[in-house]
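REQUEST FORM: STRUCTURE PREDICTION
Request ID: SP-0412
Submitted by: Lab K.M.
Chain count: 1
Length (residues): 143
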Amino acid sequence: MMNYPRSPKRTLGGLAHLPRLFDKIRLRHTGQIQDYNYLTVGFDKYLLDLLQIKPEELEQHVLQGRTDEELLAWVQIHARPITEEEARQWNERVLYGGPKDEAARRRFQDRLREVAAKRGVSVGSLPSVTAWSDIIELDEERM
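STATUS: Completed
RESULT:
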């Protein structure tokens, strides 16, 4: 069975995806996941941009074996202050954000086809989803 990082829908310190980012760093460096991009694309990059934390610095602290709570405390000290409204907008983007243009819609459909092929089913038999985080949930067998 594949060892997946936590859902992007999980929150820590009021921010969706943060626990997943920690997991992706941990799993990648123990060789348990290879095909995950992190730190430079997608939600990972957008979260690091929001926090204004250097990816290498976060990675270094995660790899020191710190707990989620210790890492959260480090993030809260080193990140720029995030307002409640920024956190709300971020969480909404992670939880409900879908493709915004035609190119993104094509990527979304391509990802659905990949998930369906991996499961050996038709795209039509997958649960209906509209958010990028739902595709992750499908791909990692939480849906």
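NOTES: The chain has a mean pLDDT of 92.
Reviewed by: T.R.
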